[in-house]
Amino acid sequence: RDYEALKASGKVAIVSGGGSGHEPAMAGYVGEGCLTAAVCGDVFASPTIKAVLATILTVTGSGGCLLIVMNYTGDRINFGIAAEEAKLQGLKVEMVIVADDV
Questions:
Q1: Do the bridges between strand 37-43 and strand 65-70 make them parallel or antiparallel, or are there none, so unpaired?
Q2: 19-73 residue pLDDT tens
């Protein structure tokens, strides 16, 4: 679907991501009824703050954005800073930390 139509719909955007090298993790979950977008970093490295913020700004409309973040230090820091920057720009953004390790 066109992300502009999704933004205009007022629905909450759901974004996740992490380092590359775990494919199809994250990107494989993008689609209707799942993630709105995935943002990936370099191999085994968190996506940059700039990349996360760009993704948030691209897909977030009036419904806001939920970030689903893995419990990895780099992801927590970069997604967290990007979320705070997006909030400063007037967007509704919330973040939940999840653990994928058993």
A1: unpaired
A2: 888 777 888 899 989 999 999 999 989 999 999 999 999 999 999 999 999 999 9
Cα 60–Cα 79–Cα 36 angle in degrees, nearest 5: 35
Distance between CA atoms of residues 69 and 11, nearest Å:
20
Domain boundaries, the chain: 3-97
End-to-end CA distance of the chain: 34
pLDDT tens, position by position, 7-27: 899 999 999 999 888 777 888
In the CATH hierarchy, which fold is given to the domain comprising 3-97?
Rossmann fold (3.40.50)
Instruction: Identify whether the C-beta of residue 18 lies closer than 8 Å to the C-beta of residue 70.
Output: yes
Angle at CA of residue 52, ends 48 and 54, nearest 5°: 115
